[in-house]
Design goal:
With 754 residues, the protein is an alpha/beta fold. Helices cover 27% and strands 18% of the residues. α16 links the parallel β13 and β14 (446-448). It is globular. The protein binds 1-deoxynojirimycin. 1-deoxynojirimycin is lined by residues 108, 152, 205, 284-285, 489. 1-deoxynojirimycin binds next to loops.
Length: 754
């Protein structure tokens, strides 16, 4: 095999961002001019008009909303997607309200607008920030065509518990992966000029700690010690603030007893002072008023005082600010200057979005919805986000597979394949696996028998037909998983096994002896160990969006080579969660485990080895973070370090490795760079991801992948929340997953000792 060796500085995926015709470029207004215009407006505004800017309402009947807008009592509107209505409401604001301050229209455009991309967890599985940026750009182009200029995305909540339904909306368990994906989305939504009519303001949410909801139950409380908060929870948010995310959203949860919407330390000291954020901070929906339920405020007035003191600029559909802010000023309990500060942030956003110059959506622009380039990008994203977990050689289908049995409730589920947060889909635009396979293999060669009508279906009546189809085919494709409604906000689960009679269906088709490919389409990692063992190959596709079926058919047929890697640890059993690769070693790390059934009756208490694992689930996950196979194979060399000693206040350090495609077809490998701080003043994680690079290689091709490491990347936070950098040994891995590779060590040394 011919060896091609290329040297590159850092391997990154470069995707072309299409250019969009039709939208006139608008120059952004200079910051000094913006502040002067805000001063002028503020000097003319009544208190009621100021409060109006802080009030975000859900769309409602036109007359009621239009009247409130014309009276200057509303500053922004969520969920209106009809461009005619958007313009009509905007006219009320611009032409009928006293000061003509435009509205801004907001929407949860989370993973696409009309063209639905994979859920954020699936986008993270691509490990390809350029592709994620392209997806966000397309979402912004489609959404802005209806007048939406503000999206409540990206969600940057590190999620280590798959019971939490909102894991679907995250980039998984790792802070760095969340940061990289979040920044890519922000770039895609905002571009470098928010005033461009196709740009949308991004919103970093949910600030903060929401992913740590106790027991994975949505909206639940969190307990977060400062080292965890500072090392894991906050870094993606800090990066977003520093990259210019235009807005932030408070989270529903309390942290250590303080609900975020009233957390002055987090919102003012950290976000505004430490990180220099000058954008808009919005509450989550009704979150200000919910501080009454939390039990930290007796009534709306107390809740409002807490939120205003914390610097929450906008009350999202909570009716606290509009109901009581004026009274609080009149009673002398709140200084109007505090309100001025909040209004200033809101007006700044509107200036930055160019809304004063260009308030209306251009309805004469041809609709960009479902443009061919958008569908092609959605196919690529779904392809690259699909993870091949197991393959005994059955995939891709070869010439021997002529007749295919297509079974399972997700094979033809146009709504459900789009996942959570897809309110603007048109289900008839979804390409399901069944449709794509029929097109590829011909109707006659695809024997379709779903077996179950939907994933929770317990009636087994259809299974006999699925078994018959399997018996008549050369191979079986079994599409299982979760309906869209089973993950996302307010959709937590206490048991992550496949629901309904899906396991029985897999068992029945596998019993025919025909080779089975299990394709899981879900909003989270499910516990599929038993089902995996019954299948010859397993593809995991986090709800893949409009083009999910096309992408899967291309992978199954070999037109595309899977390159997805898990952004989250897959547990064997639900009870293992929270489970994540960057755990602490503990004083009792398990080297060997004892299975429950092997323990003799009346065995002594210590017979299990007394280390940290579960008797009924062992110590390992089903699949580790970062794992994913390809139709080809790769070799990644041990890391090569530019020195074995790194000065603590020195320059960056280089870590290189060589990655080679050792198989027979072209493919992509994601090289992951992990570090372990061997001894610290606090126990440190067994590994932490510091960088990654996705590399496309022809068969036989090798590349040198190079990462840099600065001493600051080795710092962590102490119990007091202050950063510390400590000398000592560090281990370094370059590998294809968090569970592979051979480490090499270096020492971080105080400069005076060198
Ligand atoms: C509540 C959700 O928590 C948040 O993520 C979303 O943006 C708002 N509702 C608006 O729909």
């Amino acid at each position: 095999m011919k060896k091609i060796v290329k040297k590159i500085v850092t391997a990154v995926a470069v995707a072309l961002i299409p250019s969009w015709g039709g939208a006139a470029a608008i120059a952004s207004v200079a910051p000094a001019t913006i502040e002067a215009r805000i001063d002028s407006l503020l000097s003319q505004m009544t208190l009621r008009e100021k409060v109006g800017q802080l009030n975000q309402l859900n769309t409602a009947d036109f007359d009621t909303l239009g009247t409130a807008v014309a009276q200057g009592r509303v500053g922004s509107i969520i969920n209106e997607v009809n461009p005619e209505v958007v313009n009509a409401l905007q006219r009320k604001a611009v032409e009928e309200s006293r000061l003509g301050i435009p509205l801004v229209f907001a929407r949860d455009v989370i993973h696409g607008f009309n063209t639905v991309f994979p859920i954020p967890l699936g986008q993270a599985a691509t490990w390809n920030p350029s592709l994620v940026e392209e997806a966000a750009r397309i979402a912004a182009v489609e959404a802005s065509a209806t007048g939406i200029r503000w999206t409540f995305s990206p969600m940057l909540d590190v999620s280590r518990d798959a019971r939490w339904g909102r894991i679907a909306e995250s980039a998984g368990e790792d802070p760095l992966l969340n940061e990289r994906m979040g920044l890519a989305m922000i770039r895609g939504y905002q571009t470098d000029n928010l005033a461009d009519p196709t740009a949308m303001a991004a919103c970093a949410k949910h600030f903060a700690g929401y992913g740590y909801s106790e027991a994975g139950k949505d909206y639940n409380t969190t307990w977060l010690p400062l080292p965890l908060l500072e090392d894991v929870v906050l870094p993606p948010f800090e990066a977003a603030a520093k990259a210019g995310a235009a807005t932030f959203m408070t989270s529903f949860n309390d942290i250590n007893g303080v609900p975020s919407s009233g957390n002055k330390w987090l919102m003012r000291d950290v976000l505004r002072e430490r990180w220099g954020f000058d954008g808009v901070l919005i509450s989550d929906w009704n979150a200000i008023t919910e501080m009454i339920n939390h039990g930290v405020a007796a009534d709306k007035k107390e809740a409002t005082l807490l939120a205003a003191a914390a610097g929450v600029d906008i009350d999202m559909e909570g009716h606290s600010y509009p109901d009581v802010l004026e009274a609080l000023v009149a009673e002398g309990r709140l200084d109007e200057a505090v309100i001025d500060g909040l209004v200033r942030n809101v007006l700044r956003l509107k200036f930055r979005l160019g809304l004063f110059e260009n308030p209306y959506v251009d309805t004469s622009r041809p609709s960009p919805a479902f443009a061919p380039a958008h569908l092609a990008a959605a196919t690529r994203a779904a392809e690259e986000g699909t993870v091949l977990l197991k393959n005994t050689g059955l995939l891709p289908f070869g010439k021997g597979v002529k007749k295919i049995a297509v079974v399972g409730p997700m094979a033809d589920a146009p709504h459900d394949q789009c996942g959570t947060w897809a309110p603007d889909i048109r289900r008839e635009r979804s390409v399901t696996p069944l449709a794509a396979l029929r097109k590829l293999y011909g109707d006659r060669n695809v024997l379709y028998a779903p077996g179950l009508r939907y994933t929770r279906d317990r009636s087994c009546e259809g299974i006999a037909a699925a078994v018959k189809a399997a018996g008549d085919a050369d191979a079986v494709l079994c599409f299982v998983g979760e309906e869209a409604v089973m993950s996302g906000e307010a959709h937590s689960m206490a048991d992550l096994d496949l629901k309904g009679a899906q396991t029985e269906l897999i068992e029945a088709v596998a019993a025919t002896g025909k080779p089975v490919v299990l394709v899981v389409m879900a909003g989270r990692p499910l516990t599929i160990g038993r089902e995996r063992d019954m299948a010859d190959a397993v593809l995991y596709s986090f709800h893949g969006g409009t083009m999910a079926g096309e992408a899967l058919a291309r992978i199954i047929s070999g037109k595309a080579n899977p390159s997805g890697k898990l952004p989250v640890t897959m547990a064997r059993m639900t009870g293992q969660y929270p489970m994540y690769y960057a755990h602490k070693n503990t004083g009792r790390p398990p080297e060997w485990t004892v299975e429950l059934d092997s323990i003799p009756v009346e065995a002594p208490q210590t017979s299990t080895g007394c280390t940290s694992y579960y008797l009924d689930a062992g110590k390992e996950p089903l699949y580790p973070f970062g794992y994913g196979l390809s139709y080809t194979t790769f070799e990644i060399s041990e890391p090569r370090l530019s020195a074995s000693v790194m000065p603590m206040s020195g320059a960056t350090f280089t870590v290189e490795c060589t990655v080679t495609n050792t198989g027979k077809c072209a493919g992509a490998e994601t090289v992951q760079f992990y570090v372990r701080d061997v001894v610290g003043s606090l126990a440190r994680p067994v590994k932490e991801l510091k960088d990654f690079a996705k590399v496309w290689l022809e068969p036989g091709e090798s590349r040198v992948v190079s990462f840099t490491l600065a001493p600051s990347q080795l710092a962590f936070h102490g119990l007091d929340g202050k950063p510390v950098l400590e000398p000592g040994e560090f281990m370094v891995w370059t590998a294809g997953s968090s569970a592979e590779g051979t480490p090499v060590s270096f020492n971080l040394v105080e400069n005076k000792l060198l």
